[in-house]
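Hi there, hope your week has been kind to you so far. Please have a think about how the structure follows from the sequence. I've dropped the whole record in just underneath, so have a look:

_____
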Amino acid sequence: MRILLVNPNMTQAMTDTMATLASAALPAGVEILARTASRGFPYISSLAEAQISGAICLEMLAKAPPVDAAIIAAFGDPGLAAARELFDFPVVGMAEAAILTAVQLGGRFAIVTFTPAMTPWYLASVTALGLGPRCLGVITPGDPAVQVTGVVQIKRAALRDLAQGAAEQGAEVIIFGGAPLAGLAQDLAAEVPASLLTRSQPRRGKPMPWQVLARARPSGWRGPWPSFLLASPPRSRASLQGKNDPL
């Protein structure tokens, strides 16, 4: 089985980290095929950038070799709804998956991230799922973001303190949102009294999106997906390229 991990950010180091963590969580015989955007933004940090990057993400999905499923590896899930309409394989959004996992692990959850610029976008993801009452909020340091490739090292203590504060305010689950924070949950597991999630690794061994996808159907099977997994009849990659029905 092959799962496509699409990073619509342009920073290759983020893709490498997420692909490594994802591969470590998968059973034998499941391959992660990772792709990084060749244009757009080093790191998507606003709703406007997300709209642009969503279109880039669709192009990346259309140009990929045959896969069994795909993950949009940008918190906020740019292009997710359109991808599910256009392609004939399941597409997982990382924000959606993290939020839905969080509400299965506890009562209220909070999202901790490294810059206030992300707050409106992340709150929109929660609202779109109808889970606003379960969310304590998006919690960030007050200062602007540093270079994204070093954010975990530079802001580790601040992010830990924010997570601890969220737990004290009643968050039973804390999501570390943003590709630069991949793997932070495992690092801080002993220091925060809550279930911790990042986009790429859970604290308590719960299955993450690619693990669920890897179990969904046997490798090499191309039969239809059960109807309950599909919100609407999917379109194929060929349709997006104009070979079948016009969009």
About this structure: The chain has a mean pLDDT of 80. Residues 151-168 form the longest helix (18 residues). The radius of gyration is 17 Å. Residues 2-94+207-240 form a domain with the Rossmann fold fold (CATH 3.40.50.12500).
